[in-house]
Amino acid sequence: xxxxxxxxxxxxxxxxxxxxxxxxxxxxxxxxGLILQTPCGGAGKCGKCRLKVVSGACPPSANCRPALxxxxxxxxxxxxxxxxIQGDLVVEVPVTSLFESQQQILVQAADLPPGSAxxxxxxxxxxxxxxxxxxxxxxxxxxxHFVELDMxxxxxxxxxxxxxxxxxxxxxxxxxxxxxxxxxxxLLRRQGxxxxxxxxxxxxxxxxxxxxxxxxxxxxxxxxxxxxVGTLINLKTGLDMGxxxxxxxxxxxxxxxxxxxxxxxxxxxxxxxxQRVIIGAVNEIVDELVRxxxxxxxxxxxxxxxxxxxxxxxxxxxxxxxxxxxxxxPVFTDAPHLNAADLALEINPCGKxxxxxxxxxxxxxxxxxxxxxxxxxxxxxxxLFVDIGTNGEIVLAHKGQMIATSVAAGPAFEGARISCxxxxxxxxIEKVVMDGDLRxxxxxxTRPAGLCGSGxxxxxxxxxxxxxxxxTGRLRTPDEVPSTTALALRKRLIEQEGHVDFLLxxxxxxxxxxxxxxxxxxxxxxxxxxxxxxxxxxxLLEMEGxxxxxxxxxxxxxxxxxxxxxxxxxxxxxxPPIPCDRIRxxxxxxxxxxxxxxxxxxxxxxxxxxxxxxxxxxxxLSPDFQTAFSSAMLFPEDDPGKGCEG
Amino acid sequence: xxxxxxxxxxxxxxxxxxxxxxxxxxxxxxxxGLILQTPCGGAGKCGKCRLKVVSGACPPSANCRPALxxxxxxxxxxxxxxxxIQGDLVVEVPVTSLFESQQQILVQAADLPPGSAxxxxxxxxxxxxxxxxxxxxxxxxxxxHFVELDMxxxxxxxxxxxxxxxxxxxxxxxxxxxxxxxxxxxLLRRQGxxxxxxxxxxxxxxxxxxxxxxxxxxxxxxxxxxxxVGTLINLKTGLDMGxxxxxxxxxxxxxxxxxxxxxxxxxxxxxxxxQRVIIGAVNEIVDELVRxxxxxxxxxxxxxxxxxxxxxxxxxxxxxxxxxxxxxxPVFTDAPHLNAADLALEINPCGKxxxxxxxxxxxxxxxxxxxxxxxxxxxxxxxLFVDIGTNGEIVLAHKGQMIATSVAAGPAFEGARISCxxxxxxxxIEKVVMDGDLRxxxxxxTRPAGLCGSGxxxxxxxxxxxxxxxxTGRLRTPDEVPSTTALALRKRLIEQEGHVDFLLxxxxxxxxxxxxxxxxxxxxxxxxxxxxxxxxxxxLLEMEGxxxxxxxxxxxxxxxxxxxxxxxxxxxxxxPPIPCDRIRxxxxxxxxxxxxxxxxxxxxxxxxxxxxxxxxxxxxLSPDFQTAFSSAMLFPEDDPGKGCEG
Lengths: 646, 646
What we know:
Nucleotidyltransferase, domain 5, 5 domains, six-stranded mixed β-sheet, about 25% strand
């Protein structure tokens, strides 16, 4: 195994990643968690992804001068979608080059003082360029108001509530709930009528001692079937404070939604168990976020959750049994209003929980959140949104309408059901290139511990390209592979018990001291996931009478890794045969949508409208889907979009 | 004691009362709980109080023919405000003669089938004459909808909530609370998607098996310092189902609000104790109403409560301590939204509790309810509203503005602090006439057991008239009384230990076998209550630069008895010296207002507007009030409105 990697440092965050030679800069940035803007699809035309190379060698690509102009090129600016890494680099990322929902990452890392020009502030746009689609006002459901009230007197004997209400105008609140009403007279008098009123979603929930207006946080949680991702957000500045991910502990009861539903149907205590473990995991995420950020959990006032219908119902403690049989009916589609106490979430006891509205069947809040994040609802062109997860969701926007479906992809792309599979965390092989031998990129630049989704796609695509894997998904024996196959690769084919496995890393190279193998069975698992997504896309296109080339763009979302190579995704048939520049990677869209809802009540309203507007398509009984699935189980004979590199 | 009484039966209720000769029919009706309309103040001019004498002798009064016309007089119609009782009577009460809020009493008693012309029904006016001030739409916060839903199918896989939401259109509900959301899938499927959706105040709270739409009840509770009155209402028809009254058990901790507040301030468990006993008493009232009406308490979905600020805060479990010291600050003025479970009220566990909004200081929800009931907020003339209770409230409407104050009257008019005092229930002496000897009317036509508020006022007024009581409130000795005093009355004066008591009933005449006495001390207690109300009225009039004769009307409310003689109330100085025809008795206005709020959400909105509009006047530190109070401790020398009989 040849490992020659370069270190790329990104300013102002200071994040560092290691990348293989010839990796494009856009990809290295994504690996560092920085999703760049690519409205032209990475064709090197729009110049939106420009980065400034501060140190290290990075010659300008052919498109660089036409897109950026001589002056910028001279200053070190490069097109991230075109520039290939040839050595260690230090790169500066302009805020305007980031994908809109991500811009705060930079602001935070730069540790700007509050109120600085680049920090978000209430009523100000997050974007430097007004009118851009990603622009949003910072308008969370929580507001805090420090007040020093006039003391009651004979001339002013207003009630406690009225005194407070008048003081925080023009903000208002609903009739005060009985819990706080009982506490309020004592709080006001003990604090000398001085303190911070906390209003959450129109409810006055607390009157804290002193001025705590700067301590106002929320958490956005992407509730995946396999993975939970929580992001702590400062609701005063709009900035990310930290991210924590965890395996959904429900996986021990089965790794897809069907298994979880079965548990609820067959075991009287199943629902309670599943709910308890997932709430426990979310509380662990809260613990870790609180500890890392050094904040008080009482200052977290809202949790926004987005997941598929099964996950959302289980989180809420609502029996998902009806999702386990035809016609797959969810209990709710509009967003329920919950208190943190209803779910035993360990934030402020009067905090709120917003669960995303749902579309229907298995298409739940995560898809709505993804549409919010990608602005698919405002799309005028024909655009496909694909969220790859254990439950794969596909939305087609065409002529101002949206149709959506879900497919049971299984957790292969999230690293589960794959013998050496793992999440895209430190130690995961996230990129594989086969060039004489196998070169790999490992997250954290450590020894490899396993294979994550993007590494899996790379490996399979490369094996297909080299003819080591045949289109049926069978790993060929050393005797069967093309004669051009490099010896080093040929040696990686290990025949045992009538089938062949592929050696990714020798036992001397790994963390565990055991070899890492891509087994024939792993390939079969991956084929199932691949075929499910692929068939879902085909059917939606067919329903609208569209061909792949009618798609202006494909938005690729998923929590399965930092980045997947678009040409590889297309090579294995996961994505339709269209030019790579029409394929956009938009990161964990569900998580981004949840963050947006936390940052603005307008986004929650948008989510409600989206949930009502999208038409749900149930493919479960569709014979067309069965046919499409069967044919998608075969990999394409050749790369359907050859010549277009991403 | 001479007791010659006539039996008066009222149709269609069948209610019977016993009345002394010469009692006016209006008064006998009030004693039967039937408050008649008297827009002309009982001057015999408007004809609104007309009743039909079905059997018995009742010659027409002088005003009868001009007001009612020859035909009606020939048919037996009489003016209730003029006709004097001279023998047993059976009288029919037309719906239109009843005080607006009372009209349902008749409808109920007549046991009309639902939908009959005289029964209230949703969207129909309670009044036969559209446009009258008392008119209201039946529009409670609760609605029930029986639905037979389409079963889910592949063609119609809407969520459970959406299925239900669409079925009950145009009624809608808020996002479903987590409790019902967890129950709903099971309820729907167990009941075969058939049942009754219950919506309370916009919240879907239940999906009951079968069609229960006709079982929909609420309870209006007048939460007095001394007395609790609960009325069960059928929210489908608007009809009363029963009334239960109880002594407020908090009286064992002190008989006025100051004593209750002191208990909360001085005893850490005081508030919890006071709340527990009053909630216990309300639950007993609920029990009795449920038992008497033979209904299921799960079908009671709302309790509306009206009380003064101290009572309302204690009921809610909110510390009233700040009401115990200057500047007497209540915790809330706008109506809090509560669930029955918050207060451990034993109705439907998802039922709601509406607590009336408050004005300020001690002027609470009972006054707002009284204004709702009397429509004082729509008044264009100068009108005084006086609610006589342990906490006396006075509201002056003048030039479209309202000012309000409260006075600590003490519980004398409710029968407490009076040696033989009792509530206006069976056995209470409710009317006293001194005419050679003492004649009395006892509620239930039983032997006397005690003296209620109206009997107390009668007794004192008569003793004053005859010179047996001097204007300072001292009972004269047999030697000091005027020489014209009848021997029988003179014999009732019992000298002991330097003071004189007045014998109301000899021990042989009473229930207990003990004599009933009005003691000198009882008169002093009554003077305090009387002077407090009287002084409060004087000050409000002074503040607006008004004289008593500027008052177009005085609305007299109170739970202290069925009826008080207006001339007697005026004689003792309780009411200002104005002609009796300007004094209107409006019954337990607080209870009526609470019933209205139960029957219509519009009345709740009106209550909120009233609470904001009324200006609160704090008399506690007013030297003018102290002066007015001192002079009101002296009874008027002579009847200030002599010649005007009510």
